[in-house]
Amino acid sequence: MRALERLGARRYPSVGGYTPDQARELAAIAYGIGRQVGLLIDRKGRPSLILVGTPKGILIPELDRSRLGAGRLRGLRLLHVHLTDEGLTEEDLTDMLFLRLDSVAALTVNHLAQPVRLHIAHLLPPGAGDAPYDILPPLPFDKVEEDFNALATALEEELAREGGKLAAPGTAPSGREKAVLVSVSSAPRAVQEASLDELAALADTAGLEVAETVVQRVATVNPKFILGKGKLAEIEVAALRCGASLLVFDGELSPSQIRNLTEVTQLRVIDRTQLILDIFAQHAATRSGKLQVEMAQLKYLQPRLVRQDRAMSRLMGGIGGRGPGETKLEVDRRRIRERIGRIKDELKNLRKRRAAARAGRARAGLPVVSLVGYTNAGKSTLLNTLTGSAVLAENRLFATLDPTSRRLRFPCDREIILTDTVGFIRELPKELKEAFRATLEELEAADLLVAVADASHPEVENQATAVAEILREMGLGDIPRIFVLNKWDAVPEDLRGSLKNCFPEAITVSARSREGLGDLTDAILSKVRPGPGVRDSGTLPSSSCAPASPLEAS
User: 423 near 377, Cβ under 8 Å?
Assistant: First the structure.
């Protein structure tokens, strides 16, 4: 301990990083205790922290963020001892990258406790190389002439001169967080890659930048780590090289799996369900939508609520503070249960109001036609085109969360209520199915379902199958249905024949160009019972009964 304390009294030069005597002292102490010893040195040459690790690694505690800002480094360099001839490890480079250290240097030691070589690495400005750092060739420990302060200052000046910013750890220059997408399954590789393409679209919608994708086909999934530690190490290296701070797994992980993966990789880990919940949280705009998303998130979080450190200590209870009381974890779980109960009550009232609205439509005798389908199939655009509405319609997943109803009048004295609903997706999280029951109940009152599919999507067959399966699971398989292939104008001519053979009963339309809308409205009117309608003396009936100037009604 006295020898370690003496290290803190030294001053370490910027040029070379140390004196030869200081290198020998460090090597002797580390070899003597059989552990890695490290120093975090500031730009004045003073040790800020003295670190003692294990024989194979060293742990850097949480550092002060006072100097950490855009375009600036931490102002600290790491000098530590490796007990073998091993150079810089991935852990060393990860620490430098995510802590934004000025540099990291590893001093190797031989069996005589003598220093041998110094391995140095430093960060690079964004776009300066394939990796976010540069590893210098190893040097004899007493032949180091690198000026560490000048190196760090030059990097900061380069960033300032170009007006650029050193991206926050794990983020792209655009400010988006970088993520590595991982698929582990026994399914064929082609199926996994198609699922990863959809996960990439979800990640983009959530505001992530996909830096790397990893596909691993296994006979059986490892119940503890999903995959082997060797593959996990490869994923960690891939994340390091591309500067990613997040792993997104294509599938649902258990709470223990997330915890184990986080501990092994030292990266944040989420699954497909959590990613979808995050998208819903970003897009929820109305009170009902926010309530439904919050309940889904709480139900997902409840079994995954795990705290460490003092969170498991008992809070004082009983008279005068006596008694075991509750743990902080138990308090959090109880509050979640109470909040879920309050949200359920509010959603119950919401369902009553929507049920009253549906009853009013039923008394008026207006048929209800609901648009259903995979997310981003063009349902909102189709609603806007048919009714002349201005409902939010964007080329992104889950742009619509709340049901929207519009009245559609035809020249032949017919009226219907056209409803747009939340889009479906494969493996829709069960938390969302329950939370959005108030929204999906709109489908139960429908007289006709118009299943809309994106004809230009390469996975259109699988998406149509997924929608049909979800409708069957919801008990809506008996409601009359029309199948519509939307975005027909985006389908190449040579593929149209095979699509028509695959979906012989489908109606082909283009919501943007209005192609095929006459056939769609004829099919809708042939399937629904006549309503009372509203006669418009200024409108002549058309033979196809296509929609006239649409009449909006919320």
Answer: yes
pLDDT tens track for 215-239? 988 888 888 888 887 788 778 777 7
Closest to 46 in 3D by CA, of 12, 77, 94, 78: 12
CATH superfamily of 177-278: GTPase HflX, N-terminal domain (3.40.50.11060)
CA distance 165 to 279: 28
Report the SS3 class of residue 487. coil
- Regarding pTM above 0.85, the answer is no
CB neighbours of 217 closer than 8 A, spacing ≥ 6? 185, 186, 187, 188, 189, 192
Determine the Cα–Cα distance for residues 363 and 532; give it in Å rounded to an integer: 11
Q: DSSP assignment, residue 199?
A: H
CATH code at 365-527: 3.40.50.300
Report pLDDT digits (tens) over 176-212: 888 999 999 888 888 889 889 889 988 888 888 888 8
β-pair type (507-508, 481-486): parallel
- Annotate 326-376 with DSSP letters as a single string: -BHHHHHHHHHHHHHHHHHHHHHHHHHHHHHHHHHHHHHT--EEEEEEBTT
